Amino acid sequence: MICNITKGNDFYGCVSYVLAGDARLIGDNMSGNSPTELAWEFRLVSNKNERVEKPVLHISFSPDPSDRPLSDLEYSAITQDLLDGLELGDNQFLLVEHRDTEFNGKVRPHCHIIINRVNFDGKCNDDFRDYYRAQRVLRQIEKDYRLIETKSSWEVEQKKGPPLRQDETKYIQEAIKQAASDKPEMPTFISRLQDNNIDVKCRITRTGKFQGISYSYNGKAFKGRQLGKSFTHQGIQSQLGVIHKPIHKKQIELLINAPKGDSDSTNQGNTDNTSVVESARPYKSFVPSIKETFGSYESNKAKKQLKIEKAKDSKQANNSHDNTDAVTTPPQSYKSFVPSIKEVFPRFKDIEEEEKNIIQSNTDKENQPPVSPEPEPEPTSTPEPETIETAPEPEADKYAIIIAGYMAAQNTLEIKGDTMKATLSPDAERLTVQRAISNEVILSGYYSLSDGGWVIGSSKKFTEEEKKRITQLKELSSKRVQQPTAEKKGFEQ
Fold first, then answer.
1. Which among 93, 92, 80 has a CA at the least distance from the CA of 121?
2. By 3-state DSSP, what share of the chain in percent is helix, strand and coil, each rounded to 5?
3. What is the DSSP string of 335-377?
4. 57, 203, 372, 458: which has the fewest C-beta neighbours closer than 10 Å?
5. Chain centroid to CA 246: how far?
6. Dist CA 93 CA 27 (whole Å)
7. Phi/psi of residue 214, nearest 5 degrees
């Protein structure tokens, strides 16, 4: 029994694909029927954990072509065992059978499972090495259900490859065995494969650790695991004996990135076990020194001076557009903008002396003879009338309650009208009322929880028209509270 695992984020696309055509739903723990309903149900649960970027887990598995037919009950039991083995027993899933593939002229049925990686509690399963865990679970399922056992990918020493690429697969496998026959070092091994027109790609970390390898021949590429266990980056070292060291990293990169036809310069035709690295630059030559990486003090100082000169040149170029001469102001010293400790925290003696000076200056002013006041000049124009302070509004606190209550009912922080306008602070604790035409503040106050209501800071006498407008606001607020909205209709008030 073989399986394939993919992950994604599109529940609807995956469900639509699995349920298309002559697909047959065998089992699930969902309530929806159509792809739209099922995708919505999947998404409803996956939203419990917004950190999961790929909640869709798609697993397809099929028994060996020569295996016995399986019933729906066996398919369901196998699916449950697979989910339990991957720690997905508490997750949503769909089990669907497809019969659209053939093998040797016979229909070969296979199944698709769509799983939500986020379970009903909002937790996401650990998918670390889930492909290898699924392979181990399938090996146990084959034993439990007496099915034909299939070797896992890491158990296959040499794979046959797809029918259309068997020739290339066999050629690369034989070339690799021949190149590694005398257990050479990695650069020599790669150079021999290039001599046989096989392109090699390696994945090597910054520290020189070997992590992956792939091969390409006749325009067709193969990963190491596609050829077999012995041809992976681990297999060519542990089983074929190819030697890799971190210092090989530079030479390998030169071999891989060299233009085609230049392999002669990288030890082409070297069939013995001599180390290619010996002909390359020594290790010290391509590892930069501390001085090359960080520079010396003099070089850094020179760089700063060059940066200052460039800044001056750019400043002069900008100032050349106007006719005024550029005046350079000297940079401020540290002392010019950082106050001293004495300025921030004066000494006690300094404070006493300052107080004595103030007292002495006041005493001197008292001892001076009185100065006769100068005669006031006669007014040359008509004096302005004195402003008479308007009496406060006795009902200001009630008016504040009405206006603030109306604004709360309207869910607004500001009202404007022809008579007056009012503003409420974002925290709904400060109210200001003005006359519409003159913008004169006629009421201001704040809400105090300890005082149990609105505290009026200042107010002026309201006109009859303004009082009439407040009465209208009170009636509108009472109507809005008594009549339920359309959204609440049918619910208990």
1. 92
2. 40, 15, 40
3. HHHS--HHHHS--HHHHHHHHHHHHHHHHHHHHSPPPPPPPPP
4. 372
5. 34
6. 8
7. -140, 160
Closest CA to 204 of 247, 173, 266, 262: 247
Amino acid identity, position 49: N
DSSP H or E stretch at residue 83:
helix 72-85
What is the per-residue pLDDT for 273?
43
Of 335 and 488, which is predicted with more confidence?
335
Q: How confident is residue 376, by pLDDT bands cut at 50, 70 and 90?
A: low
- Residue 270 one-letter amino acid: N
Task: Please answer whether residues 442 and 423 qualify as being in contact, where contact means their C-beta atoms are separated by less than 8 angstroms.
Answer: no
Q: Residue 421, class by beta-carbon neighbours within 10 Å (0-12 exposed, 13-18 middle, 19+ buried)?
A: middle
Per residue, what are the HEC states of 103-122? ECCEECCEEEEEEECECCCC
The edge-to-edge listing of strands for the beta sheet with 210-217 is 199-204, 210-217, 220-223
Alpha-carbon distance 244 to 109, whole Å? 45
Average pLDDT score over residue span 78-107? 91
Given this model, what pLDDT does residue 265 score? 43
Which one, of 230, 225, 109, 117, lies nearest residue 161 by Cα?
A: 225
Give this prediction's pTM: 0.38
Tell me the sheet residues that pair with 107: 102
Distances (CA, A) of 217 to 170, 180, 196, 201: 11, 18, 9, 12
Residue with tokens 């072509």: 65
Distance CA(180)–CA(188), nearest Å, equals 9
Cα–Cα distance measured from residue 465 to residue 259, given in angstroms and rounded to the nearest whole number: 92
CB 403 within 8 A of CB 431: yes
The predicted-structure confidence for 196-231, as pLDDT tens digits, reads as follows 889 999 999 989 899 899 999 888 888 888 888 888
Burial class of 293 by CB neighbour count within 10 A (0 to 12, 13 to 18, 19+): exposed
User: Cβ distance 135 to 152 under 8 Å?
Assistant: yes
Per-residue confidence at 370, pLDDT binned at 50, 70, 90?
low
Q: What is the mean pLDDT of residues 10-35?
A: 92
**Bridge partner residues of 216 (DSSP):** 199, 221
